[in-house]
């Protein structure tokens, strides 16, 4: 018996402060005006996507003691944009990345419960764990959290927020104008939480929201991060959108679920993915190459190499060979506020490998960065891209993808117009929303 | 509201002066189903909808129909209570509230002219988060954002955060209480200072998109704010570029010298609660003196009087409504602000009288949102318009514009 076809989940990531965005393209618009977010969200909703996704960073990135200025800089506040987008969309899920280190559970739980009410059940929270003292300098709390405690705080933060969400069961509000009973239970919202990171008690003041709790996403990649996802998340935002790495990641995280008493379908794997469309596969490949050249200028290439080398490489020629000095592996980092720096866990090994590859292929620094950096994931005609995405999902490299276009805010339009109809024809993507909440779109159970 | 409310009241002719009366600014303070605790029991109240977007959208649309300058949205970091300092156990009043900034953001795209001013609590939140949230509210509303900064001295709300304990206020006049209140307001002043510096931490033209050099921003136009205060320090710059108004409108409610000082140091609008004209004059004088002491005497400051209003065509009807609601609540309604019951024309008289004492506008607290808000927009507003004391159309696209406040220069921009 052949496996039934999986339904694909699709979401849209508003391109942010990294070099995915080609801000120099003449079609590139504002990354901050609300009209950009509204256009992007309406396109995603027109295409019946599951949700819109926003990343977050709480300090402007720096390199070598200066604010990093080669990519888009600046972004709006996550909650505020998502709530405003709830006014210009009706069904689209609204997923916000919110840090568990530089926030407090009572406030974040209020904000997500409010967003869920104000959007009619479309809120989701991507729980991230950046902990660095550099970011901490923007907060009352300062840089107080040792790295090894990031997940213990995140776990307790989420557990505490869940206690707050659950402190109203949903039946308390009677609002009977005749009898004068507004609340059935004087203690609605009562909670007590005592733990290593939070010692709080009192009354939560937002009644239970349409989804009960927001949908929970997780994004970290370490073993601990994956365990956190397996124990506590509804979906993972991963960076493994290739067939092979995607399948390995998928198998790994789905295998972790049983240990937490959960079924494989209770955790969706949704990698971030980029795409380039053309009239022919060849044209798309050429376009993709052009996009890469725009994303990786000589200056960007040098800066990117600095993530690994942790040294000032500005005197090197981006069109020349890689540095023969080794990376600085001391504790001080010249790059600050970047999640991707943590991808390079063994800089010496990476430098060695990159030098070998560059020499073997006669690559300059810029060629190397273009070749090893974030390549576009889906390149080709709409037919090719639709087929590839479906193949990846059916072969368990993912349950769907969170698409990040190169152009703000219109980059999603061609995907919506050309690829989505093909997936619908194949019967692997919805032609209309069946439910009203994000949980409905994602096929997730209501929380107990 | 019946149409008769819109006809001029012969009992109260416009004051006959040679110069036309100054145009007033008008705000409404939105909170649940209204400010009277039994307001939810009125047939117009929609108490089951106060946690939906549609409810708030309707209220703000009504306020905008009345050409009001702004709405404020109340908030708090704990359930409402009939006690000043403690949580209560009553089940016969509205309990529960959505986050005011999120409510504000949700309605901003549905409106075009009216200012939107959510409440934020300085005592337990992060100025960095609030700065970017209000900046973003300014983007999503195209320049109509403000904030109302508030402190909380409630021990139970501190326990919701677990980061500090707030001692229980026992006697209001005791030195300990004065010290605590001063500390909380000083902290709020630092908080607003940080919020304001972060709004300026990007110069307006910092985004350059210079393809030739590959630079998206001119980083010389981004500024560390390096704030060091007694309770916290913040580095900056903001992650959000300078908002459309440059500085969204900062407001605070104040009842005594310590909070007047916060208004004088940091606000664009102070909401005050005079019971009569003499008191209004005294409050205005005190705040002006504090403004002078803070070195901001040259900068415009609005002082709005707060009033709770029960408005009906017939004054007896308004008084009866108040009595009926008091009976339902089981006790007479009291407030920090003067409570007005009467007709729109009588209210217009009172506002003009108070304005003569130096108030530039009023923040009206509808006793029953579903009744008294439309009475303001369809009764009071036309009455004031007839007296040439209120606008006939929105004359500006931003809240600062409506308030006659210029867009401020950036404190960090090189002169
Ligand atoms: C795909 C992906 C996306 C992430 N996005 C964000 C983000 O938007 N904001 C943020 O502060 N951290 C983000 N992070 C960082 C994680 O929250 C976490 O701090 C980091 O990955 C270190 O945890 P780990 O060791 O488990 O990977 C992201 C991480 C990954 C893998």
TrEMBL record, chain A:
Listed GO MF terms: monooxygenase activity; oxidoreductase activity, acting on paired donors, with incorporation or reduction of molecular oxygen
Keywords: Flavoprotein, FMN, Monooxygenase, Oxidoreductase
Coiled-coil regions listed: none
Enzyme Commission no: 1.14.-.-
Gene3D superfamilies: Luciferase-like domain (3.20.20.30)
The protein's enzyme class: oxidoreductase
InterPro entries linked: Diverse_substr_monoxygenases, Luciferase-like_dom, Luciferase-like_sf, NTA_MOA
Protein name (database record): NtaA/DmoA family FMN-dependent monooxygenase
Protein's organism: Streptomyces phaeolivaceus
Taxonomy of the source species: Bacteria, Bacillati, Actinomycetota, Actinomycetes, Kitasatosporales
From TrEMBL, chain B:
Entry-linked InterPro entries: Diverse_substr_monoxygenases (IPR051260), Luciferase-like_dom (IPR011251), Luciferase-like_sf (IPR036661), NTA_MOA (IPR016215)
All copies of domain Luciferase-like, residue ranges: 44-325
Keyword annotations: Flavoprotein, FMN, Monooxygenase, Oxidoreductase
Gene3D superfamilies in the cross-refs: Luciferase-like domain
Molecular function GO labels: monooxygenase activity; oxidoreductase activity, acting on paired donors, with incorporation or reduction of molecular oxygen
Disordered as annotated region, ranges: 1-20
Superkingdom, taxonomy of origin: Bacteria
Residue sites binding FMN per the record: 75, 119
Pfam families linked to this entry: Bac_luciferase (PF00296)
Family indicated by similarity: Belongs to the NtaA/SnaA/DszA monooxygenase family.
Protein name, entry field: LLM class flavin-dependent oxidoreductase
Species of origin: Streptomyces phaeolivaceus
């Amino acid at each position: 018996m052949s496996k039934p076809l999986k339904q694909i989940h699709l979401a849209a990531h508003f391109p942010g402060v990294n070099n995915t965005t080609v801000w120099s393209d003449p079609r590139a618009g504002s990354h901050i005006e609300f009209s950009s977010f509204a256009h992007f969200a309406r396109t995603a909703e027109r295409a019946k996507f599951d949700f819109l996704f926003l990343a977050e960073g709480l300090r402007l990135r720096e390199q070598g003691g200066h604010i990093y200025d080669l990519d888009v800089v600046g972004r709006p506040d996550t909650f505020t944009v998502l709530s405003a987008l709830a006014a210009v969309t009706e069904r689209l899920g609204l997923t916000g990345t919110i840090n568990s280190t530089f926030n407090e559970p009572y406030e974040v739980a209020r904000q997500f419960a409010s967003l869920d009410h104000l959007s009619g059940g479309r809120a989701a929270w991507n729980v991230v764990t950046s902990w660095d003292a550099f970011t901490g300098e923007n907060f009352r709390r300062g840089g107080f959290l040792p790295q090894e405690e990031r997940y213990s705080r995140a776990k307790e933060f989420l557990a505490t927020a869940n206690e707050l969400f659950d402190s109203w069961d949903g039946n308390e509000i009677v609002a009977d104008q005749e009898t004068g009973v507004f609340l059935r239970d004087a203690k609605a919202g009562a909670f007590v939480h005592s733990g290593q990171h939070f010692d709080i008690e009192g009354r939560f003041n937002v009644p239970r929201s349409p989804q009960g709790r927001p949908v929970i996403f997780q994004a970290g990649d370490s073993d601990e991060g994956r365990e956190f996802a397996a124990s506590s998340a509804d979906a993972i935002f991963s960076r493994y959108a290739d067939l092979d790495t995607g399948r390995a990641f998928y198998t790994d995280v789905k295998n972790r679920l049983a240990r937490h008493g959960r079924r494989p379908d209770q955790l969706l794997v949704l990698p971030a993915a980029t795409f380039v469309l053309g009239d022919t596969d060849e044209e798309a490949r050429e376009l993709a190459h052009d996009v890469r050249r725009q994303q990786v200028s000589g200056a960007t290439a040098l800066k990117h190499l600095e993530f690994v080398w942790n040294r000032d490489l500005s005197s090197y020629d981006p069109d020349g060979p890689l540095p023969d000095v080794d990376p600085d592996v001391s504790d001080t980092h010249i790059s600050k506020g970047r999640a991707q720096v943590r991808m390079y866990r063994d800089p010496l090994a990476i430098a060695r490998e990159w030098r070998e590859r560059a020499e073997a292929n006669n690559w300059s620094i810029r060629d190397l960065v273009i070749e090893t950096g974030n390549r576009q994931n889906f390149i080709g005609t709409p037919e090719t891209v639709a087929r590839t995405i479906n193949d990846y999902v059916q072969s368990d490299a993912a349950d769907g993808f969170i698409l990040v276009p190169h152009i703000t805010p219109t980059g999603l339009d061609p995907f919506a117009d050309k690829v989505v109809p093909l997936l619908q024809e194949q019967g692997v993507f919805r032609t209309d929303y069946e439910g009203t909440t994000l949980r409905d779109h994602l096929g997730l159970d209501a929380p107990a | 509201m019946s149409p008769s409310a819109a006809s001029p009241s012969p009992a109260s002719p416009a004051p006959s002066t040679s110069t036309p009366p100054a145009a007033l600014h008008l705000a409404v303070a939105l909170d649940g189903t209204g400010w009277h605790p039994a307001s939810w029991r009125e047939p117009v109240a929609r108490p089951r909808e106060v946690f939906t977007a549609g409810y708030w959208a309707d209220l703000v649309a009504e306020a905008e129909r009345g050409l009001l300058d702004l709405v404020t949205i109340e908030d708090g970091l704990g359930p409402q209570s009939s006690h000043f300092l403690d949580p209560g156990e009553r089940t016969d009043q509205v309990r529960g509230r959505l986050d005011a900034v999120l409510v504000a953001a949700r309605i901003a795209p549905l409106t075009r002219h009216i200012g939107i001013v959510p409440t934020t609590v300085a005592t337990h939140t992060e100025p960095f988060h609030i700065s970017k949230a209000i900046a973003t509210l300014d983007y999503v509303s195209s320049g109509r954002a403000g904030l109302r900064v508030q402190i909380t001295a409630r021990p139970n709300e501190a326990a919701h955060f677990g980061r500090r304990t707030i001692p229980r206020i026992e006697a209001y006049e005791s030195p300990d209480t004065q010290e605590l209140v001063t500390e909380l307001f000083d902290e709020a002043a630092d908080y607003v200072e940080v919020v304001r510096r972060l709004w300026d931490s990007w110069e307006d033209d910092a985004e350059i998109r210079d393809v030739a050099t590959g630079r998206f921003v001119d980083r010389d136009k981004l500024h560390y704010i390096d704030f060091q205060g007694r309770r916290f320090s913040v580095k900056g710059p903001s992650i959000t570029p300078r908002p459309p108004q440059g500085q969204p409108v900062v407001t605070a409610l104040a009842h005594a010298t310590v909070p007047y000082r916060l208004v004088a140091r940091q606000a664009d609008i102070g909401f005050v609660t005079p019971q009569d004209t003499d008191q209004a004059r005294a409050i205005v004088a005190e705040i002006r003196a504090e403004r002078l002491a803070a070195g901001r005497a040259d900068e415009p400051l609005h002082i709005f009087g707060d009033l709770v209003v029960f408005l009906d065509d017939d004054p007896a009807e308004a008084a009866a409504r108040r009595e009926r609601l008091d009976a339902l609540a089981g006790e007479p309604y009291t407030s920090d602000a003067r409570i007005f019951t009467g007709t729109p024309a009588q209210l217009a008289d009172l506002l003009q009288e108070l304005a003569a004492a130096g108030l530039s506008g009023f923040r009206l607290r509808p006793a029953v949102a579903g009744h008294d808000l439309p009475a303001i927009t369809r009764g009071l507003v036309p009455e004031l318009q007839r007296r040439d004391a209120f606008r006939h159309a929105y004359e500006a696209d931003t809240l600062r514009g409506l308030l006659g406040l210029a867009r401020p220069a950036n404190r960090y921009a090189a002169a």
